[in-house]
Amino acid sequence: MVYISRALLLPKKSSQQWIDSLRIYTRGGHGGTGLPRVNGVGGAGGNVYIKAVERVVDLSEVRHKNSKQRYVAGAGENSVKHKCMGSPGDDVVIRSPVGVSVVTDQGEVIGDLLKEEDLVLVARGGPGGSKATEYLGLKGQARSVKLDLKLIADVGFVGFPNAGKSTLLKAISRARPKIASYPFTTIQPNLGICEFKDLRRIELADLPGLIEGASYNVGMGHKFLKHVERTRLLLFVVDVNGFQFKLDSPHRSALDTVMLLNRELELYKEELVTKPAVLVITKMDSKGSEEQFETFKSEYEKVVENIQTSGLPADSLPDLLCQFDEIIPISAKFSPKSVEFLKHRLRHWMDVAETRKTEENVDQLSSKMAAEQLQEIVY
Q1: CA 20 to 30 Å from 239, out of 28, 38, 87, 216?
Q2: Which spans in the chain are helix H?
């Protein structure tokens, strides 16, 4: 069920470019040579690891520390007469932002760094020389991998350019994103922290604006959409006046915008439209906004019952509609009360989603235990 709420509506720059994808070359250390006459074993080559560190903000820091993007671990020590067992080579640990997936050139995900101190082995060192290898140390594993950063935030903003996402982020948190009247003010994600009196903190991500065709990698495309995957709740941000990308582009109403955003998420990854979601209608301080919002409500209720009532062509309509927990009209610029109301509603719906998830997990576990008990009785 969708609840439509009403709130009282009153009239530092980084020198490094933010990047969220980086390809690196890694190679484990060569194994040390063994010593046949004393059956000595060479030391194993060092390994190359990638470690999640919260203080590393993005992959530009990784690139800055090693411009060649080559990481080679140390070779194992050779076995000698006075030291039969060679020492292992030095490991290389690459410090990475939290939220990185390590992917091979073949598309295989080696591992995900989802929290502080997570560690992924990327290139294993070669074994030291021994009788099994005729005392010859072996080469270490060598491969190129891509570090793919997907932001981890509680709430991810979804919207077309110039919908008021950056203005909202500034109003609801301490973030200071770039704000202007032209569409693409956000060309990299901005993160903000929303704080409550009881010290609860919610992390918000203002992501680059979508355009039609983003699911096919048009515009920011996949560079934006991948960051939605790990957010706990989607916040659709829609201008009550609608959206027009260029002068020769069709004007999209607020309802059209919701449908098109829904469609782009669905085409990119169908599971995204099943995430918990809240819809915010912005710029309620603009002329005629009250009437336009009433029109939107009426049209949206009809579309929920029958999606064909939308004026968009069939190929622009989603197969599955996002189920918004609530629709909230706000003026981020002129109504602090509406922003404060939104802040607490986001917290509420996040808690509801967590409760639902816990209940589902309990039900699944109960069903599994019941099935196992039944199987024991049968046998």
Answers
A1: 216
A2: 59-65, 165-172, 221-225, 254-268, 289-305, 336-378
* pLDDT tens digit sequence for 235-259: 999 999 998 877 888 899 999 999 9
Q: Is the dihedral of CA 20, 21, 24, 28 positive or negative?
A: positive
At residue 131, the 3 state secondary structure works out as helix
pLDDT at 283 exceeding the cut of 60: yes
Order of all β-strands in the sheet with 92-96? 92-96, 48-52, 119-123
How confident is residue 226, by pLDDT bands cut at 50, 70 and 90?
confident
Phi-psi region of 96 (alpha: psi -120 to 50; beta: other; left: phi over 0): beta
Q: Which two tokens stand for residue 315?
A: 């190929």
Reference 139, options 229, 236, 73, 80; nearest CA is: 73
pTM over 0.90: no
Rounded-to-integer distance, Cα 18 and Cα 40, Å: 49
